[in-house]
Design a protein that fits this description.
The chain has twelve helices and twelve strands. The chain has about 375 residues and is α/β, with parallel strands linked by helices. It has a twelve-stranded mixed β-sheet with strand order 7-8-9-6-5-4-3-2-1-10-11-12. Strand 1, helix 2 and strand 2 form a beta-alpha-beta unit. Helix 2 runs parallel beside helix 3, helix 2 crosses helix 10 and helix 4 runs parallel beside helix 6. The relative contact order is 0.18. It binds S-adenosylmethionine. The site of S-adenosylmethionine has 20 residues, from strand 3, strand 5 and helix 12.
Length: about 375
Amino acid sequence: MPEKIILLNEQRDSVPAIPATLSPATGLLSDTLARPLHDLRISVTDRCNFRCVYCMPKEVFDKDYAYLPHKALLSFEEITRLATLFVAHGVEKIRLTGGEPLLRKDIERLVAMLAQLKTASGRPLDLTLTTNGALLARKAQSLRDAGLQRVTVSLDALDDATFKRMNDVDFAVDEVLGGIDAAHAAGLGPIKVNMVVKRGMNDDQILPMARHFRHSPHILRFIEYMDVGDSNGWNMADVIPSNEVVRRISAELPLEPLEANYSGETASRWRYVDGSGEIGLISSVTQAFCHDCTRARLSTEGKLYTCLFATRGHDLRALLRDGASDAELTGAIAQLWQARGDRYSETRTINTEGLAGGGKKVEMSYIGG
Ligand code: SAM
């Protein structure tokens, strides 16, 4: 059984330095591997109403688990202020996540604030949100009205018993399907549906999911089960490599590869040869894409992580609450990104202990998926 983790005490986080010379953002920042800063994922809560066995297993995230107290969370004003600075540095896409982002009270208000931002070149942001779909039927229209453009919905099975086994809170699959319909009706598309595939748990759902979403306007994406965090007891034997997913689907529904939409796209794209739609494959384990990873992550309490597999974050909240100016925060963010050299997924085979010389990897529910 995984050992209980108390994140806050175990992280070796640091307060970022403010550079001596402050320069304005140029909209173009590069890290040590020439990767620009393009996407920002913002975790708005570390809480979730599901207990997916591969993400927030019940044995760890039980009633005694120490979630962040409300005052530790970045306020909507703090999030928007930081997001504005990231956008000035070149971020064009913001994804709200968690935990379950629809659990954050008045999330529509944050969406409305972020929807006002314009990219460095003056275009609207690509503003999206990842959800388990449980509250989507209720919230789709108000999210759309607030300015959200689209959603990604996580759905690991169509078979109700399998789905309930995975979410571990007895949540019925029909309710998530209803949420997807409501999001579509509200215009929150194109909708991506993410399925994490775990061998022996839901891999028999690959074909039913493919059949179900073919001919629909939604894009189904298969995600390799990853070794994020330390609580899910990850084992390589549980991973179904993406090429196996393609093989299994193609045996019934022939597929052919498609070009990427843009450099840095996480999913590789395939289309059904008969023209009935496309799927995506996110292969962070077997075909790492660190070389063009352009994502920064802001945790629920305002720590910046430059890799999903990081063991430490950079405490932007400390700077914010200590009264740093926008110019100082801008300088600190630039310095952090310019020093970034993370490429965990490409090196995991030689360093399975994580980045920065071991230590506990941060949980996905805290950093944001
Ligand atoms: N609660 C929201 C949801 O369910 O979509 C957002 C947060 S969740 C952490 C984001 C995504 O991460 C989900 O699609 C989830 O399936 C995925 N995820 C979590 N743990 C994972 C793991 N070990 N490997 C691959 N994907 C994982």
